[in-house]
Write a structure and sequence with these properties.
The protein has helices at residues 15-22, 59-64, and strands at 13-14, 35-36, 38-39, 49-50. The protein is an alpha+beta fold. It is globular.
């Protein structure tokens, strides 16, 4: 979760809504209604949180993420 002193958390969004905001296309149309609540680091990710891996040094955190 972003530090609330600096960022205002927006409401939850579906994958389709996030894709539209980003100008992206969802590859698996069955997932478009899945809800994302927040963006968090890999080691704190949960079922409705989005995270990403962009550095090989975080592979272990990726493997243990949910």
């Amino acid at each position: 979760m972003a530090d609330p002193r600096f960022f205002i958390r927006s409401r939850s969004q579906t994958i389709q809504q996030l894709a539209m905001l980003a100008g992206a296309k969802v590859w698996n149309e069955a997932d478009t209604g899945y809800i994302i609540d927040d963006v968090v680091p890999l080691d704190r990710s949960g079922e409705h949180e989005l995270s990403f891996l962009d550095n090989p040094k975080y592979v272990d955190a990726f493997r243990s993420s949910h």
